[in-house]
Amino acid sequence: MVASRAGQLKLNIDGAFQETQKTGGWGFILRNSEGQGLLAGAGRLAFVHDADSAEARACQAALLAASVQGITEVGIETDSLILVSALKS
Known about the structure:
Layout: E1 10-18, E2 23-31, E3 37-45, H1 51-68, E4 75-77, H2 81-88
Parallel strand pairs: 1-4
Antiparallel strand pairs: 1-2, 2-3
Protein name: RNase H type-1 domain-containing protein
InterPro entries: RNase_H-like_dom_plant (IPR044730), RNase_H-like_EbsB-rel (IPR052929), RNaseH-like_sf (IPR012337), RNaseH_domain (IPR002156), RNaseH_sf (IPR036397)
Domain RNase H type-1: 12-88
């Protein structure tokens, strides 16, 4: 998890990976500090290399959707330690 500050919006993201088919999906929800959902999205991935790639695509889609709405600062929560490390670097 990438920590968020009090009062900050938080993106929860997740990616799914089906190894035998090399397909997957992604989803996200943006919530305010009271936990109310503000923005959400989900989609399929016709080809994805691994679970971390699916998680990264979820993050990419979430950040793009937030930026289109004019949101420039969010906390991000993910279960991918590799993605957390990449985002912090």
